[in-house]
Amino acid sequence: MVHISRICFRKYGNFVDNLRLYVRGGSGGMGLPRLGGQGGSGGDVWIVATKSMTLKRIKDKYPQKRFVGGAGGNSSVQALKGQKGKDIEVLAPVGITVTSDNGRRVGDLNVEGDRVMVAKGGSGGSLYSEFQPSKGQAKHIRLDLKLIADLGLLGFPNAGKSSLLTALSNATPQIASYAFTTLRPEIGKVMYPDYKQISVADLPGLIEGAHLNKGMGHKFLKHVERTKQLLFVVDVCGFQLATKTPFRSAFEAVQLLTKELELYKEELASKPAMLVVNKMDLPDAEDKLAELKEQLKKPEEFSDLLPDDMIPNNYMTFRHVVPVSAITGFGIDHLKTCIRLSLDEDATVETSAIHQKKLQSLRYQLT
To answer: Domains, the chain, ranges and CATH?
Structure first.
């Protein structure tokens, strides 16, 4: 048995989800005034997405975190047009958002092969610059990893998310009977008989005030942004994070999770969502589930159970409410079916919308 003090002082681990880099385009080459020659442009610096890379590997492989494009070649009698400097490609994981130091978004790398230029090389010297070359762009950039998954498991600590991920998929996250077992995101794949695969991300448990960056708040709320749908997971019997914090019922947990999403980024609360009511193997679970379902039908009538500042602006409407026991396996197959139905429904709507746009474009071209 692992002693709880080991977890209390455990660090965030080896998982790296953001990295700051210095990038500089190469300097241009000198022009040749005597013959009107033009120097080569400096090399550019690119960030390129690949599935085989992680931010930690970049950090370990390039401890200086400095990337500079090659210098452009000088113009000469043998080559009036100088050679372009060597481009530098920084391989980064899929699911990266690239921002500049001032917070401006430079680009997103969503699929393998996506690339974005982060520092342009300087121009070579020419007649227009009195044959003097210019320096390349120099800046600090930030790489932020936001997980890409079909589903994101969202819940308070000890709701049973890790056990659920294990029951659903091939992932083997750390599981124990105390809060904050999951300290970094875990990704699992749900497999179906027709070989369809659905990715599920287990995000570490939130706490009240996560939107204020309490606990690991912003570090993990941002991962929710890159999931197609949300899977709320609550303990049917409620939970209490610590002896000094209030007990929260399953209904309160649902509304507090909704409010945390709203306060962090309001549009997150409008994502398609399902509700998993876990730990149905516990005593009185059926009665608790019936109570929760009644409360979810008319949530505004039970808003007095919540602190005034934690009442959601809009109550979450769930596509499916699925009772399960991740420990015994009860309800897991039904949950897999609901997940597939929900994602397929969205895929059908998306495909229909694309066809409609193409049809409208074709009609416009014919008129």
So the answer is: 18-145 (2.70.210.12), 149-350 (3.40.50.300)
